[in-house]
Specification:
By secondary structure, the protein is of the alpha/beta class. The protein has 15 helices and 19 strands. Bound molecules: manganese (II) ion.
Length: about 500
Amino acid sequence: MDNQKTKEIWFLTGSQHLYGDETLQKVAENSKQVSEALDRSGKIPAKVVWKPVLTGPDAIAEICVAASATSACVGVITWMHTFSPAKMWIAGLTRLTKPLAHLHTQFNRELPWGEIDMDFMNLNQSAHGDREYGFIGARLRLNRKIVVGYWQDAEVVDDLAGWARAALALAESRSLKIARIGGMNMREVAVTGGDRVEAQIQLGWSVNGYGVGDVAARINAVTDAEINRLVGEYEDTYVLAASARKGGEKHQSIRDAARQEIGIRGFLEEGGFGAFTTTFEDLHGLTQLPGLACQRLMADGYGFGAEGDWKTAALVRLAKVMTAGRPGGASFMEDYTYHLVQGREQVLGAHMLEVCPSVADGKPSLEVHPLGIGGKADPARLVFDSRPGPAVNTTLVDMGGRMRMIVAEIDVVKPDHDMPNLPTARALWQLRPDFKRGCEGWIEAGGAHHAAFCQAVTTDEWEDFAAMAGLEMVRLDADLDIRSLRNELRWNDAAFRLGR
Ligand code: MN
């Protein structure tokens, strides 16, 4: 997950010919300084690349076409240091296929009160240059991120950095291949399904099914030497229960799980997949439901969804891309059961097996226990509690004709009690603004029982991603008002139908 600095964000500065060479020279120097400061901030997870000042429609069109055609370029930041008549931007912006940010800033922070003259005024025109430029974005109905403030302020850099993370996720989305091992959703389940052709048109996801037998053949071909090496890694990385260690009665399950991990990993690498699903309803040729393998592959950056849930698998992968280099992880998650003591209501999130150890608080324990579903041997799994702190749960549902993203802000808490008999990884959280409204909002919007649980992606970053992808986005946070939400959902229905 450290390949992000190979990507670029292009920094485009708008101006016009009217000002003459001396002023344009100054514009170039200043904008280069802004661009380099952003690059050096260490916060933007891509190279910020300064481009020569744009003074006419041909050059603008040319750079926008180049940005669209350059695979390393994941987005462009635009800024009007001076006035840049916005009809000049129409040809370029209508051809731009990469995410667009509009930085509304000014080179100087303070007015030079004693020295200010018309030369200064002519050089520092962002206040109205960015308004002229902003109009054409609105007129073209462009999805763009508008970031306002002084370019050296941490808040401004953070906003651009968050947008850049979403832009990296969009680039990933447009080339994401998702393997459905077993090729099916859990029978009769509604929310994990959806229009895969529409998902590919809108989000770029290529979602295809593969026979579980093909994967089983690969798993069976794994050698003992490979298994020995990986089991050694397990012993170094996790706490192993006595029964799971060499010589223990459950050790064979650990070896079988290692075999599955190596086989599935090879299958995913060979196919160039970024995400995958499994299903307990199709395990032909597998000795146990893959649990440990899914957990460890997620920890290495793969997206995962259980029960054929390809939408959540994709979201987990996008969250992995967005969180790269940040503390905190991302995982497949399910709202499992509740603690309903009044005023202290909590959600216990987990899954049968497949929660990513990137969200673990401390060293996970590797254990083998029976599983009352799937009718196979006892599967290995990592067991742990999740790190406390703020997080978001993100879901994507197919509303018929469009996808809706729902992002809920939550606070993960440390459990007051041990759960010694619960043999699965879990997270305990509280909803914002409170349990009643948090649940009602999620259910009202049609949120799934699965989610991408993210400790290091913010709601704003998901919102930026949704805007870039043209998705409907519903946020459930501390400001949630149920009546407004109902109206928002009703109006969104109309807006997305009219917009089609
Ligand atoms: Mn499930």
